[in-house]
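Backbone-to-sequence.
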């Protein structure tokens, strides 16, 4: 937020003036309304006089009529909270300009002009963290999607591409490091204690990829030699004390550069690649050309402070942002409706990279768990939208699991149908055709179609239709023929009552029960509402393994016996399918239990089948521990809720924990033995040691439910013996759910040990907010008053409240206290950081698919937020859609 828009109320907290708040009905932007911009801006030169409280920005734009657009004599430059201090056209100060809302309108009569504009902003009061803002004494930017207009007036849309020259001047002691996009140019010192630096980015880019960083930073520097032999300097900039935690990020960067050359043939294109870590950041990271800005969470890692999961997060996000250099920067998006063009594709690319770096099946399982845990609920709730949305009010609300993760699945399906080689040809064609352009999803599909030789006519529906398709399958065995009757249904979603069938590629295998094997995989593409496929030569009825490797992002309904699931859980040679069978076994049982369909005997029988399968998983020495750990993880409560129409979170929680306790008791000796074996493994980052750490904490989780006293002792032991964060956090997580003295003791020890490390303090907040402890709500309330808690830092807000909102047993407390707490948070956070506040609305979307008591309580809170008035455009849109 900047001066023009900020007024201070008596207690000094910033408040937005009316202009920044939404009018009753903010404009709806529609995809079909796209028109090219009337002007081209081939070059922009920016001059920054930097200061934390006052930064002066002079922008020089070369402006040319766009022959491909409708003729206009008016140049509309977007602004957000800016006042033009000076407007100069072709060297003359003019006052012919006017304001249209937040935008600056400059009349221009000729075909080309030079337009100069001066603005002034206050980075220190920018709590939205969009545009230029201050973080820990440094200055940095976030411009995607529409932050550049908070820095200077400009056509802030992704289809206006310019080359950037940046010059910045600032006090040398305060900002010894001055960075921007592209390659470094001249630099020097002035007599007044300031210094300056110039940067030039030769690659035309849209304004959302602009970045500037000024601060007191140190760098981990390395080099990478590209496939054509150019040496690129690599820097990872952090604050002084953090340097020793940048090694993993640097290794990840070099691996990413190498992999993109080998697998996609993409080479880096500047002399230097800079990454800067900042602690105040709304998202994970940002792919600004040549100057990626990262949340510290995705840069800093060492064994003492980061878990194995954190190491993977760093590797994945470094890769993601680096890969954007081609899928996003060299080829960018025409408009924001095309966001999945760069995000879906780049997520797929980072997933494939991580599959190659570690365990392919385990990575696939993790990605599917995220999809089902976050995207499926989104797709079945009031915020459902196609991966290429048709309209929005605030684009920040569409950086979703649907655009990112389902977007990746959609491209993965094309890859599955085409095969790897043909898919690569399609990608090559896409980059070749559209390099230097702002493209559309349609351009991408067309390039894959032409390059890979596929007909994707019907497949395009995956871009336009929302909702997770339901596929049901029935098997018929007649003589020696097996027929699969497949049926698809795409559920109706907001604004899309009727759906057309989509092509659904399903990899399958038919197992011979007698010899435990199959005759080869088949890829069946279900492209009609109903279809049947027949296989012959099956004297005995085989066992079906369907959607192997999760080839399609659908949910499968099938009548399958517990016996067959046990068979697949033990014998399927596709690790994903094996995991799936194990999950299905548990889901089926818990669904029946929650629906009250099981008497005591039936419940025991169900539990016993699961217990036998789990015992087999524990005993199977062909499994590595990373995979074993996956097979031990029970389906999440969120996923279970998703499987039921009017879910009762209290009942689900009780049944799920009941099952876990039963299994823990039944297999107590095995879990103790597993914990012991895993504890003997010394720390390293290799797969074997990581697997050991994974099953170690899994064992503890089961034991905690079966034998809390024992688990508390073992957990405290694991905590004390830990020489790494994975073990320490795993133990603390289990202890946090118990009501034992060890809980208090270790939580205190952890805080004292790490209180100076913000990322670990975040974990400390999150562990308590996520815990199974019966008083988790009270703990969260108390933590909100902790001296280290602040609403100004998004990581801290998420560590307490996102963790809480994702803790079903606490968030869905029957009296509605959890809902009230999150609604209060939204209202308090909205004026400070609307983008982050709006993210807390989506958990309330569940109100439509939950038992009636909670449904009413959730709705009540949504209505309370809606009635508050003066909401940001971000939060307003999400609340309106959620109530829908
Ligand atoms: N493009 C960034 C990424 O790598 C995310 C930026 C999102 N920014 C925002 N304001 N929503 O995925
Ligand atoms: Zn991205």
């Amino acid at each position: 937020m900047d001066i023009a828009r900020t007024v201070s109320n008596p207690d000094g907290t910033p408040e937005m003036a009316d202009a920044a708040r939404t009018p009753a009905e903010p404009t709806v932007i529609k995809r079909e309304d796209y028109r090219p911009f009337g002007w081209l801006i081939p070059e922009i030169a920016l001059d920054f006089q930097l200061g934390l409280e006052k930064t002066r920005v002079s922008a020089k734009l070369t402006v040319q009529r766009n022959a491909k657009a409708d003729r206009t004599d008016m140049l509309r430059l977007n602004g957000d909270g800016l006042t033009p201090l000076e407007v100069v056209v072709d060297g003359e100060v003019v006052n012919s300009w006017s304001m249209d809302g937040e935008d600056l309108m400059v009349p221009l009569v000729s075909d080309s002009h030079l337009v100069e504009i001066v603005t002034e902003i206050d980075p220190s009061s920018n709590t939205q963290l969009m545009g230029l803002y201050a973080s820990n004494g440094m200055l940095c930017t976030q411009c995607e999607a529409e932050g550049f207009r908070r820095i200077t007036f400009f056509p802030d849309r992704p289809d206006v591409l310019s080359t950037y020259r940046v010059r910045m001047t600032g006090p040398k002691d305060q900002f010894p490091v001055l960075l921007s996009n592209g390659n470094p140019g001249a630099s020097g010192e002035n007599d007044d204690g300031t210094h300056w630096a110039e940067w030039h980015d030769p690659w035309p880019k849209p304004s959302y990829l602009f970045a500037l960083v000024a601060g007191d930073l140190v760098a981990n520097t390395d080099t990478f030699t590209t496939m054509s032999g150019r040496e690129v300097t690599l820097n990872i900039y952090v604050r002084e004390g953090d340097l020793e935690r940048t090694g993993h990020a640097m290794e990840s960067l070099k691996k990413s550069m190498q992999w993109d050359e080998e697998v996609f043939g993409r080479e880096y294109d500047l002399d230097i690649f800079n990454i800067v870590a900042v602690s105040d950041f709304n998202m994970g990271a940002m792919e600004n050309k040549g100057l990626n800005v990262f949340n510290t969470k995705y840069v800093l890692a060492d064994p003492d402070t980061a878990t194995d999961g954190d190491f993977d997060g760093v590797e994945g996000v470094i890769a993601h942002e680096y890969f954007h250099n081609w899928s996003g920067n060299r080829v960018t998006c025409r408009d924001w409706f095309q966001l999945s063009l760069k995000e879906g594709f780049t997520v797929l690319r980072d997933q494939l990279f991580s599959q190659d770096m570690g365990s392919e099946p385990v990575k696939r399982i993790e990605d599917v768990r995220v999809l089902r845990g976050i995207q499926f609920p989104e797709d079945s709730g009031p915020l459902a939208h196609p991966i290429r949305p048709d309209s929005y009010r605030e684009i920040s609300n569409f950086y979703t699991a649907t655009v990112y993760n389902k977007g990746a699945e959609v491209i993965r399906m094309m890859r599955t149908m085409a095969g790897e080689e043909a898919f690569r040809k399609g990608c090559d064609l896409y980059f070749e055709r559209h390099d230097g352009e702002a493209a559309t999803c349609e351009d991408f599909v067309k390039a894959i179609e032409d390059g890979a030789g596929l007909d994707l006519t019907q497949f395009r529906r995956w871009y336009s239709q929302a909702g997770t398709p339901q596929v049901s399958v029935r098997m018929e065995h007649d003589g020696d023929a097996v027929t699969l009757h497949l049926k698809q249904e795409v559920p109706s979603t907001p604004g899309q009552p009727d759906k057309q069938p989509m092509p659904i590629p399903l990899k399958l295998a038919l197992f011979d029960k007698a010899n435990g094997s199959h005759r080869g995989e088949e890829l069946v593409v279900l492209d009609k509402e109903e279809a049947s496929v027949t296989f012959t030569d099956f004297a005995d009825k085989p066992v079906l393994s369907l959607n192997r490797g999760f080839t399609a992002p659908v949910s499968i309904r099938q009548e399958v016996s517990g016996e067959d699931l046990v068979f697949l859980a033990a014998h399927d040679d596709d690790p994903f399918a094996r995991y799936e069978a194990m999950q299905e076994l548990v889901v089926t049982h818990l669904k029946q239990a929650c629906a009250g369909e099981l008497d005591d005997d039936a419940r025991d029988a169900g539990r016993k089948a699961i217990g036998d399968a789990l015992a087999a998983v524990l005993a199977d020495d062909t499994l590595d521990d990373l995979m074993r750990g996956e097979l031990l993880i029970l389906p999440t409560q969120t996923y279970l809720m998703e499987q039921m129409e009017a879910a009762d979170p209290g009942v689900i929680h009780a049944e799920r924990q009941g099952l876990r306790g039963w299994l823990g008791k039944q297999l107590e000796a095995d879990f103790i033995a597993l914990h012991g074996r895993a504890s003997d493994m010394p720390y390293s980052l290799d797969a074997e040691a990581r697997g050991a750490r994974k099953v170690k904490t899994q064992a503890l989780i089961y034991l905690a439910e079966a034998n809390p006293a024992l688990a508390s002792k073992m957990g405290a032991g694991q905590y004390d013996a830990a020489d790494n964060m994975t073990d320490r956090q795993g133990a603390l997580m289990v202890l946090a759910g118990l009501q034992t003295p060890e809980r208090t003791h270790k939580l205190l020890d952890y805080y004292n040990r790490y209180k100076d490390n913000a990322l670990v303090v975040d974990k400390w907040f999150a562990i308590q907010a996520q815990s199974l402890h019966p008083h988790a709500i009270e703990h969260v309330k108390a933590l909100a008053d902790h001296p280290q808690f602040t609403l100004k830092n998004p990581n801290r807000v998420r560590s307490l409240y996102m963790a809480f909102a994702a803790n079903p047993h606490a968030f869905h407390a029957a009296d509605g206290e959890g809902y009230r707490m999150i609604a209060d948070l939204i209202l308090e956070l909205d004026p400070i950081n609307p983008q982050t506040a709006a993210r807390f609305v989506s958990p309330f979307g569940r109100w439509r698919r939950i038992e009636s008591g909670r449904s009413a309580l959730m709705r009540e809170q949504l209505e309370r937020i809606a009635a508050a008035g003066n909401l940001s455009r971000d939060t307003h849109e999400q609340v309106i859609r959620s109530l829908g």
